[in-house]
Structure formats: structure tokens, C-alpha cells
Amino acid sequence: MAEALGVWIVGARGAVSTCAISGARAVARGLAAATGLVTGLSDLEPLGLVGLGQLVFGGHELRSGITLLQAAEELRDGPGLLSAALVGALKEDYAEIDRDIRPATALGCGETIRRLAQGSKLEDALTAKLIVEQLKADITDFKRRHELRRVVVVNLASTEPYHETLPACYQSLKAFRKALDNGAEGLTAGVLYAYGALESGCACVNFTPSLGADVPALLELAVERGLPHCGKDGKTGETLVKTVLAPMFAARNLKVLSWEGYNMLGNRDGAILDDPANNAAKTRGKDKALREILGDTPELHTRVRIDYCPSLDDWKTAWDFVHFQGFLGTKMIMQFIWQGCDSMLAAPLVLDLVRLTDYAWRCGETGVLKHTACFFKNPMGAETHDFWRQWEALKQYVQAHAACAPQRQKHTKARRA
């Protein structure tokens, strides 16, 4: 019997998580096609990734007073993302997974996110050190009850506020642990989740723009524990299109003068990003990609705006205006509108990253998984934001592993024996 893989989601009853869980169960049972799953492409078949039916879900959730079924019904009745037939078919699954969802923390996330909880949070009664102990206990209990050898922790929580300067305690693992013991200020939920996951012996995926494991202290911890991780900020919509199109301008030696991006969305993420501090964390990553691809010159003007438009719900609309210069100084314009369902674009990528991280873990890989860069707006350890170069790097990774698959399988069987 195939070995199960635990998937512990931070933000377990959020829209992206609910769509990912529903999609995994639906595809595994033949109720839906694998459309949208990168790991469903023939290019990645040689890896022999964990099956979607082998995934066991649990997680942390900030919002109280809502079940996973109710979260699914919200997506059915509101933006219409899940069909009534699918929600009905998965009722027992939602109830089963609900038993493995625990209260979360919003420490250091700002008042906008804290208001989501509509009730008590871990930090209301616990210090940062005790919060970490609780997070670890929740994951350990999940592993024990489901007899899981491996768990991948995925952060799908709301975007935390951006801070220009990192706390000094993030600079080394020793300083971080000391700060936990002393109750130092400046620690945030995303970093605590990542620390708790790594200390629990779990691999990590940070799908958010928040720091997570992307601080020196936790980069050190991942290597110390021999664990793989990747992030950050899933590349699902407008930025995906930008990183596909921008290399075209560079390759044709067309000079981009201005690239204005305007985004509107109406779900909970939109409400969170209506807070300027949270908004800054998101737009910063979007702008960075263009400047890396096109050249960070003073004459290049780029700007990204994200505004909350409640009536749009989960349907994100982005308008991009590109002003560029061609031969003999001729100025031209390109405009495009991207309209997509934010959660349904993100959900399959979450499953892709879980499967790829698990594969790397089984192969003994440690630290940042650079080959997953094509999935992120601000990829850790990446050499480029150019989507095509990132995609080529992933394909080369697959080809290299396919070439040594027989020998690797032999070693794996020997270890298990």
C-alpha cells in the first residue's frame, strides 16, 4: 500500500485551502480532471510523485465558528467556485478533515488580520515560546494519529504587514531561540509557523508574501534539520503574465518605459490588502520581478496597485498598461486585462508544491528548493524572475532525476529494507 503524506495547512478553511482540498479529493476519485496541475503534465511524469489520494489534510485556522463544509458552501453559493454536486460528494471528507484543524495565531499580523478571528487566538493566553510549543504539539498529534512519517506544512494564511527592517533575532538560529525564551517583540506568525514546522521535522512551503522560513535563522534551521522548503508568494495571475511577457521585450531589444499594473479583488485577501501595511508586502514582490527582467534603470517606471472591490468576490481583475519604445525612438503601447479566479489559480499550485517538496524530501534534498522558482513571485534562492528560464530549470531538474531514477529506487528500497 502506498505511503500517506500529511499536508498541514495554515489557513486550513480559507478559500485557497478549501479549493486545494476539494480538488485533491475530486481528482483522486475521478470526479474532476487534473487541468491546472503542473504535476499533471507529462513533463513531470518521470518523477513518480505522491498520488493525490495519498494526501492526508489537517491544519491551523484563525477564523472560529466555521467548518470546512461551510467554507466550501461559501465558495459554492458566493463566487460559484465549487459545484453543488462536488460539495455534496465531499461532505464526509470535510467533516473528517475538520477533526484535524486547530486554532491558529495572528501574532504580529496587525489588527486587520486579527479581526478575522472573531474570537480567541493563541496569543491571547500564550507567549511566543508557548505558541510554538502548541503548534508543534498539534503537528505531532496529527502525525501520530494518522501514522505519518512525513508532513509538509503549507502556509496559506493572509499576507502579513511589510517591515523594512528585520528584527535582529532573525539573523541567527541562536539569537532566534534566545528571543523566544526571552519573549522578544517583533516575532510574527508566519515565522513562528515555519519554525514550529521545521522543529517538528516537517518540510515547508510558504505560498504567502510573508517571511516564513526566508530569514537567516530558519534557513540555518532547515539545513540543521536536513529538511527542504520553498517559497514565497504564489505566482498565479498578473505577475505570471508579466514574467512571461517581459522577457519578450528584452529579447527584441524593445525599451519598456512604463509598466503600470492595477489589480482589483474582492475576497478576504482583498479586504486584508486594503490595509496599507499588508498591501505593501504584496506589491513589493510584484514590482521586483519586472525590474530584474527588464533592468533596474532610473528611467524605467513601474508601479503596482491593489484595491479592494467587494462585489468581485474571488474573481480578480488586473489591467496592465505597457508603454515601450522601438526602432528610431517610436513609442508604442500594449494593454491587457487579466480576469481570473484567484483561489482556483492558486489551489492546484499548492498541490504541485506539496508533491514536489515531498519528492525532494524523499530524495534527501535539504534547504531551499530552487527548481520550484516558477511557482513564486519572489522565489527564494532564485537567479531569475524570467518564467521561461524558471520553467526550463524545473524541466532540467526532472530530466536529471529521471536519468538516475533506477539507481535511486534501488537505494530507496535498500533503506526501507
Annotation, overall tally of beta strands: 11
The CATH superfamily of the largest domain is known as NAD(P)-binding Rossmann-like Domain
Strand order across the biggest sheet?
Answer: 3-2-1-4-5-6-11
Q: Average pLDDT across residues? A: 91
The CATH class name of the largest domain reads Alpha Beta
How many domains, as an integer? 2
Strand content: 15-25%
N- and C-termini, Cα separation: 15 Å
Radius of gyration: 21 Å
Q: State the low-pLDDT regions, or none.
A: 410-417
Which CATH architecture of the largest domain?
Answer: 3-Layer(aba) Sandwich
Query: Biggest β-sheet: count, sense, barrel?
Result: 7 strands, parallel
Number of helices: 15
Oligomer: single chain
Instruction: Name the helix and strand elements from N-terminus to C-terminus, one letter apiece.
Output: EHEHHHEHHEHHEHEHEHHEEEHEHH
Helix content range of the residues, please? 40-55%
CATH topology description of the largest domain: Rossmann fold
